[in-house]
Amino acid sequence: MNIDLHIHSTASDGSLSPLEILNMAQNLNLGAISITDHDTIDGTKEALAIGIPPSVNFLTGVEISAVPPPPFSFPGSFHILGYAINVDDFVLNQTLVTLQEARNNRNPRIIELLNRIGFELTLNEIQKDAGECQLGRPHIAKQMVKKGFVQSVAEAFDNYLAKGQPAYVDKYRIDCDRAIEVILNAGGIPVLAHPVLLKIKNDDVLETLVTRLKEMGLKGIEAYYPEHTPDLIARYTEIANRNGLLITGGTDFHGSIKPEIKMGSGRGNFSVPYELYENIVKSQKILVY
């Protein structure tokens, strides 16, 4: 039995609602899932309000955009996953509100830059197509595809929206020690997300980073990820074991935003063992649904 502990819903930049995610998890016979939306727990809250199917174990979750600890600086995304969080925690909710406001302020600036390049886009038309979800770059990219400005979402990012490209706008992130602290204080388990995206080539640098994060309270590493080769999974697992950290994994499922990635199986040959969920549950008293 497999699990998927990295799923995005319409509450952030996924294309499926929490209900659709729960139904799909049932149909795929997944043993456990977690909805880990970017800087929001609205998707998790909605899933809990709907009711978790008895056949699926559910961990509350979030993926927080953070700043790497000094002196580290990475070209890739630095995110901290939080599992088994108390969704009613006041500080957690206030922190996420701040991050969401930063995301909202970012979108008009991206549209302005795209307009200057010559792409006729408006936030209203993007929101209309996206529905009642939190807008982000993937939704802008999809609109660019729809209007024929680019051939694919990947092309939109590679040529315009990614870091270093003409329509890229940086966003506010919280310090990683604060992100970890907020997750811990909400009763949760902070985990370093998709380390491959940090683009660290030196094992010693990664080991030093993990040691530093562990000092801040990090509890796990997302070793299983579709972009991780078997060698990388073994490498990250070894680092986690050496540092007494939990091992987690998920597909980073976004639905039609990333159609090549399927829930539970990535590109078809990916799986996360159920025992990792069991290890998380055994590690401490956590909220299990």
What does this structure look like?
This protein is of the alpha/beta class. It has two domains: 3-96 and 173-283, TIM Barrel (Alpha-Beta Barrel), CATH 3.20.20; 106-161, DNA polymerase, domain 1 (Orthogonal Bundle), CATH 1.10.150. 42% of the residues lie in helices and 13% in strands. It is built from ten helices and nine strands. The strands form two sheets. A six-stranded mixed sheet has the order 6-4-5-7-8-9. Strands 1-2-3 form a three-stranded parallel sheet, with helices on both faces. Helix 2 links the parallel strand 2 and strand 3. Helix 5 crosses helix 6. It is globular, with a radius of gyration of 18 Å.
Short description:
The chain is of the alpha/beta class and about 290 residues long. It is about 40% helix and about 15% strand. It has a 6-stranded mixed beta sheet with strand order 6-4-5-7-8-9.
